[in-house]
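Supplementary Note 2. Why include the ligand at all?

Several targets in our set were suspected to adopt different conformations when bound, so apo predictions alone were not considered sufficient. For every target with a known small-molecule partner we therefore ran a joint prediction. The input for zinc ion is given below.
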Amino acid sequence: MSGDSVEPLVTAVQPLGTGTIIGLEIHCQLNTRSKLFCGCSTDYRDDPPNTHVCPICLGLPGALPRVNRAVIEYALRVAKALHCEVPLESEFARKNYFYPDLNKAFQITQYDRPLAVRGTLLIEGDNGEKEVGITRVHVEEDPGRLVHKGGTDRPKYSLVDYNRAGIPLIEIVTDPDLRSPKEARRFLHKIRATLEYLGVFDSEKEGSLRVDANVSIQGGERVEVKNITSYKGVEKALTFEVTRQRGVIRRGQRVTRETRHFVEARGVTTSSRSKEEEQDYRYFPEPDLRPMRVRDWSDAIVLPELPDARRTRFITQYGCSPEHARTLTGELRIAEFFEQVADPGAPATATWVADTLIGELNYREMSVSSVPSSYFRELMQALSKGEVTDHCAVEVLRSLLDQLHAKGTCESPLACVARLGLGKAGEEIAATVAAEVICENERAVADYHSGKNEAFNFLIGQVMRKTKGRADPAALNRALKEALDMRGE
Amino acid sequence: MGTPTLHFSPKDRYNAFLTTVEDAPYCEGPLSGRGVAVKDNISTAGIETTCGSLILKGYTPPYDAHVVDLLIRAGAAIVGKTNMDEFGMGSTTEQSAFGPTLNPRDPKRVPGGSSGGSAAAVAAGMVDFALGSDTGGSIRCPASYCGIVGLKPTYGRVSRYGLVAYSNSLEQIGPMARTVTDLSNLMVVISGYDPRDSTTCERPYRHKPHPSVKGSKVGIPEEFFGEGVDPRVASVVWDAISVLEEEGAEVITCSMPSMTYALAAYYVICTSEASSNLARFDGVRYGPPVETHLPWHEAYSERRRIGFGPEVRRRVMLGTFALSSGYYGKYYAKAQVARQMVSADFSRIFNEVDLIAGPTMPSTAFPLGEKTDPLAMYLTDILTVPANLAGVPAISVPCGEVEGMPVGLQIMGRPFEDEYVIDAAFTYEQGVAT
Ligand SMILES: [Zn+2]
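The joint prediction is reproduced in token form.
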């Protein structure tokens, strides 16, 4: 735990971000097949409102919750991966408040007997690797969703969709160990990767992640920023909030303790009414559910390979650079994709996936899961056999991604090479072109033989132009040199 | 050939029913064609379920409670829904939004509550069986006042799935009938483990009552005959206890000091849980639609003020207070400690005796409208709430009269020894009959 090593909060010279204290409260939807307390399917995203509901998740009078054991199993995997302490028993509690999306007017959550406490997660901090403390991990149900009709500012009326009601959420609360918005983002990425490796979370589902953050500047009051719903949003919201608080301090004012909402579209946090802060949730143990014995359960869980272990393996097994290994293991889909396309001891493929492919995917806002690994593998093989140049391979990749982006399918890499005429010129072509260029540039050839090296550069440029960059530069070099030297004899 | 139906159109002079089913379908089974009345807080698919409250007027559940499902599969015909104190909050059935139920033994008197409609329907002979629910005496009190048999089973023996919750940790659905044999037959049908209720146990009741208390030790807590118990009731109950003695039971006096805290603990726990359970009734999804232009939270308040009766509002406010931060430790947490003390008292006494007996209620049924002070009303529950706090089985069996009004003998047993409690009641019933 970070508490073991006393970290100086303020250093002599304060670079930007020092003195910033951030703690996160992360809510993720666990991807079990059914909801937390009933048998309704969690796969509701493309379906009409209120079609994944039953008496239990509608909160009808008389219906009782029943714990879906898979949810607890998933959450215990997370607790274990975060090196948490798991108590003998854990218990659900009711959090009572009125809100139109909350069907029972209470949320079944956990309060003083959470599933797990006191864990850690290793992240890449601003000054090297650091451990971030995990305060607690617990499970709760998602409320329904309000749909406002007739404008969000002054809606005419609101509709309630209970498809989301009862979806299992895991809440992970960190200690105030993060020191910059960037660290917060890295932490979130690491959490996401860990959850995906555990097979309990799908980050690509819309609305599957929500983050609240506590932010303060050394010595100031704590401000809670709510309503952050994307990975990118976290750094944006926190950067805005830190800058805002610094501005307040610079003007000689005090940061007041409050709750603010992040408005993603505008990239700002706005003050929300203080009424919410004063809520008394009147927690008490959920009388319809018995305490769960979780310690033995947790002990019996065997974890799969997690990001840190995979990173080490990638370095030894594939000869990846540490930087590439980190990038490749930072997302489960990338890591799996890489293992499908890479041969052991092939660091070139690591560069291709970590640098080229991820860059091209991000540019198109595509997921690696839309890329057929067999095609990528074919392209890598063509490259290693010398059938295409690096330059051509990038062009082929771009074309294939454009096709996938547009229609979800694409031609094979070799078909693409043939269609675009990007096949690597063979030795024969190289020799022919070299001969042509020599005939057409007598002067330059004479200069070359008189010892002017720039002349060679000029000639190779001419050869390249004729082959439109498709030929292997080394082969061209060799062919030109051979042809020139033959004439010189 | 359609499914057979039971024709049911009783003259309901006592306002026992809120809803009746004129032609109630039924199937083959051990209860084939026998009518069962169901308390209106137990969900019945397609039959209005109001809990005696305006706020649920017009609510028709889309599903059957587990016990209703079991009854239907056993061949019973669900003939109607019975009147009750709103959400079970009362001991007279006067707190129903749909008017009080009258006691068939004397229509000027209350039938007890909150399962007053079920008790009256059985006592008047409109049905042989009824289901009630018992949170702090709501089956045993009206059984006692109306002169029938009523059982609050061990907590966890009957599924609560579909019972509109008042106080989840205290209440059980239970059988009501004119004879112990009928009550036992109903208990056979409704008990057992239900995966949908995590608080049920794998302990089905498959028992036929037989008269045997020979050699049993029956404890009589002195607190059950203390101040506030009508001496005439006490005397009738002592006579009943001596019948058990004649049948071979050994009677031992004992003491239950936690009785001092039981009632206070009970009211803190049940109001706390109720404040949470009833919060969902906000006028949006249940109850008659109302056009409103108030902000949502003000509309909620207004609908709850109009939709709930005074006793429900009182208990919701009490419970909200007891759970609020700064008071939780003082009330809710303390009540849990007191509850443990009550359980400990029962365990200690049950180390020495097999059964505990005493009066069900401190008095007989009183005239309608007589008790208006809520505190005086709460005090009448003093003898029934301990069984709910400890989760033990408790039965009320008619044991005589005071000025023509029935008196109930209460018999309690160890957890999951409902069979033993029923046998003792049966012994008394048979002993008196011969
Ligand atoms: Zn459901």
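Chain A has a mean pLDDT of 89. The radius of gyration of chain A is 29 Å. Comparable summaries for the other entries are listed in the accompanying table.
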